[in-house]
Prior knowledge:
Helix content is 59%, strand content 8%. Helix 6 (230-241) crosses helix 7. The protein is α+β, with helices and mostly antiparallel strands. The chain has two domains: 42-193, Helix Hairpins; 209-344, endopeptidase fold (from Nostoc punctiforme), CATH 3.90.1720.10. The protein has a six-stranded antiparallel β-sheet. A hairpin with an 8-residue loop joins strand 4 (318-321) and strand 5.
Amino acid sequence: MASHRRPRRPSRAHTSVLTAAAATAVALSAQAGAAHAAPAGKDQVKAQVDRLLSEQEEAAEKYNGAKERADQLRKQGGQLQDQIARGQERAAELASGLAAVAGEEYRHGGVDPTVQLMFSSDPDAYLSRASSADQVASTQAGVLRALRAEQLRLDQQKQEAAVVLGELDRSTQLLNGAKGEVQQKLQEAQRLLSTLSAADRAAIVRGEDGAAASRSASRIDPSTLPQASGNAAAAVRTALDQQGKPYSWGASGTAIFDCSGLMVYAYAKAGVALPRTSQEQATVGTAVGRDWHNAQPGDLVIYKANRSHVGMYIGDGKVVHAPRAGDVVKVMKVDAIEINTIRRP
């Protein structure tokens, strides 16, 4: 007969353990959900978005530096590869010439010279050939030395190319890592902003200076500003001409810019080459200090402890800059962000 034994009921202790475990699981689940939930208010969202966009800008400048280095290495590697190819062609030509000389000597050098002279119908012609043979031997030695030197040069160029390509690989990995970090920060910021109303989102995107992020944002007329001189004047004019164009990380014109890209573009139009990142731009030219009252139009104002942002001083206590994602090139007060250093290219 089948057993109809009733299932054993758990003990009180066992029930208590299960209850505690279930409660812990619920608590952990709630904490995990809270970690991914959007902050309750606009101020909390703004604080997190500001942090994310600041981190994004730092990652973007890291990307700019890695890209600049990768481009340099790619160009250097290409030049080395061209040099190697030309060297291999020269070595092949030298080796081919040696082979031809060796073959000729083998064909004419198998008979003793005295015997050749005895049987020669034209001793003068033979003596002339003998003299030429000495010259050929001397030339052959020179070709051998040239071939050896070419091979040594090729070996060195191949070693240099291997080093360059290895560094290019590392730089590319850094480039891809920085790119992924930028995209992740932007996606998270967008997720947070999407929890707010359109008005609150717009208020946050305005950034530190509170100016509207719009192509129709109030533009500064260069004629109302103190006049710069020389290259700085051309750079200021070019930078101000970009007002209203959108920010885009990794961009240096002509329709979109990031902060350091705007500086590169403006000064390039003035005939001055600047390095690509804000960190590198913080070392160019002459140091002005941190007091913006000593700044002149055209000076680069580097911001934040990590030097991840830069603007161009235009006079009257203002800079023109490309602020951050969602914003446009515009003017703000020079001290709206903590100044790290000011440089005069």
